[in-house]
Structures are given as C-alpha cells and as structure tokens.
Request: fold
Amino acid sequence: MRFKLWTLISMLISLATVANAQEIDWQKVDHALNRKPTVAGDVHRYGFPRTDLTVTLDGVTIKPALALGGWVAFKPMHGGAMVMGDLVLLETEINPVMAKLIEGGLEITAVHNHLLRATPATFYMHVGGHGDPAKMAAVIHDALAASKTPPEASSAPSGAVDLDTTHLDQIIGTKGRSNGGVYQFNVPRHDPITEDGMPLSPVAPLGLAIGINFQPTGDGKAAITGDFVLTGDEVNPVITALRTNGIDVTAVHSHMLTEQPRLFFLHFWAVDDAMKLARGLRAALDKTKL
Reply:
C-alpha cells in the first residue's frame, strides 16, 4: 500500500515537473555552459571531462570516463530547477572555484578525494542549488573558468574496450555501455530517493546509481573504479566484500546534505583480471538492497 501511494505521488509530481520542464528555455542553459546536454526524462546533464589532465595511478593513465568526468545536472523543481553535480579539480583550483560558486549563490555539498596515490592528485567538489537554471549555469561556467577545465565541450578518443563485455554483463547482472574507452555500468537502487520532498529520478543522470567502470589495461586485465550508493547499514558489509576480493576502498562519504534516505558513497579501486574483479564487485552488490 505504501509503495502504491508513493507511486501515485511520484506520478503526480512527474506530471508537474514535465510541465515545468517545458517552460524552461534550455537553450539559454546550453549557451551559458557552452555545451549540449544528455537528456534523460526531465533531467539535463552536462559533462565537464578533464581532458586537459594526464593522471596516473598504479601505472595506469586514467581516461576521463574512468574517474575524471565532471558533470552537472538540472532537474525542474519548485518553479525553477534544482542543480547538482560533481566537479573534478586540482588542489590549487578548489578554493578559487568555491569562491565563485558561493558568490553566485550555489551550495558546496562536499569536497573530497575519490582516488588515492594518483599523480597529480584530483579532488571532487559536489555542488547544489535551486533557482533559475540559466543563471545557475552562468555561475557554474564562471566558477570553472577559475580552473583549467576545458571551456568548450571536448571528447577524448574513444579507444577500444578490449574486454569480454558480454561476460562482464552476465557477472554484474546488467547491461553496460562503452564510453571513451571505458566500459561503464549504472546499477540503480530501487528504493525511492528524495530531497526537499521531491523524488530524485531518473537516478543515473543525477549521480545516484551505483557506478562501476572498467578501463582495459591489456591481457584481460582492467583498472576499476566508481562508487557504491549505500544506506548506513550497507556500508561495512560492502567494505568487507570488496576487501575480501582484493578491491581497495578509497573513500566513504556523503555527496548531498538533505537527501532521504541518508546515503553514503563508497569509492573503490583495483587493477587485476577483469572477470575476477567483476566477481568481487558482484559479491559487494549482493550486500546491498537492490
């Protein structure tokens, strides 16, 4: 009964947000950010990959799609739009970018690492806000100008994904996709997630699906990274499953401030046989309430 009521409420809210989305001039947002979005449902997501950086870790040169893909997503909400995102920054860029975001009225919801031992070190600034989407987009554009993030949309050479992706799909339990030489999975949680009383969906473009990325390193091996989206009671069982299978846990933290249920994001890293790592990740997924 509770699920049916939630479904009805979600449908009514979705109808309202669709109407609101039609009123937003998305071309102004595109122009402010100087790039085109990927659109899923009523969410417009814009990518800011750090194609300017050469980051290495454990002998692997990290492709932007593996761990350097900054982004922001806009979702119509409350007569305007909500924005949330994750900006990839060097240490020296953090405070200049933060100052511009604060000056423009946006919120900083987290600053932290996702990787360990990488050269150069990269940090991840999560942002949020609500208001006129074009104005918020202009603030984000001006803030990123205080970093060396490429000002225009760019794409790195895709590169072949030299892995048995059919086998990976079978182990992980869902269909992945190739992106920029990386094989990516988005595994959504089935429990509803809200912020300020609004459903956060679709979850993948809003950064709320479990993300798993494989970058081939040759001879059937891969570097893996990503993040598990977990409730508090799932954190330590997932940590144990990953560590038991030789996968490093590199960070556990929040990305948002007022979401319900409270969520924790667990980042990981390993370089090994791709199928072995996939089985370890599957063991960790089995510790979640998907």
Remarks:
- The two ends are 20 Å apart (CA to CA).
